[in-house]
User: What shape does this take?
Amino acid sequence: MITPWTYGGWLALTLILEVGIGALAARGLGPRRVQGLLAVNLLSHPLATAAFIEGVPWGLVEGIVAVGEGALLAWGLRAPWLRAMAAACALNGVTAALGAALG
Amino acid sequence: MTTSRALPLIAGLLLALLTCASARADVISDGYRGIRHRCVVVDGPLIREHRIVAFPTAGFGTAVELEPGVPFRFSGKYGTRLYAVPEGEDVGDWRFGETDLGAFPSCDMPVGHVREVHVASPVTAILSSIELTAVGADSLAFRVVDEVRETVAGVREERLHLYLGLGAVALLGLVVLVRARGRAAR
Assistant: This one.
């Protein structure tokens, strides 16, 4: 059973990692981009959690999330599509690897 | 208050309403509606040695022979009891009153019959799973092993609450993203 506290912990960890790594990787990341990263993760994380609960394989969920976040970043921040996709894939790759390493 | 400032506030209120049950208490008016509560007996060695009969299930003359895994109706109003008839015993047809079920070990239903829920509850049906654990000379013992509370489209109640909460978080994300896009245009 997933409680609001359990889910809140997962969400907080994801936000800290993705937004934190994003901010570190791109120094000078403005508040607008931080807001964009935060929004995209707030949108994708619950949907990904629901998909995972419904039995969609974790790897497939991560792949769809990376592409989806890239598209949302490009749309939301009016950023170049290729850059947004690359950033989303890199960020999700790092967090997925960290998640797998931490078990 | 401008629209851009009101949106996060509205999203926050929605999030609180969807995820916190006590916050909804003052929002929805009182009232109850009927639901379907059924029971199912799970398979086990004791079940195979006996025929379990539920009587009366709806009105005074209706009995049902239970089969593992097959849900059955029961009635709190008519006081359904469960009877264990030894397998292979010729007892006549209990459906037509030829059998005196009182001669066999029996017990009350191990679950209380839920006939209605609060109008704000999303529950539409309940299925309780029971397991026969002991057969004595006069009595039976069942234990409740599971209770599934179904909501719309067959989604379990606890999962519906989770999905509503997840939807509220996603909505918040969408609001923030739309605002970010608006800022990016300037």
About this structure: Chain A has a mean pLDDT of 86.
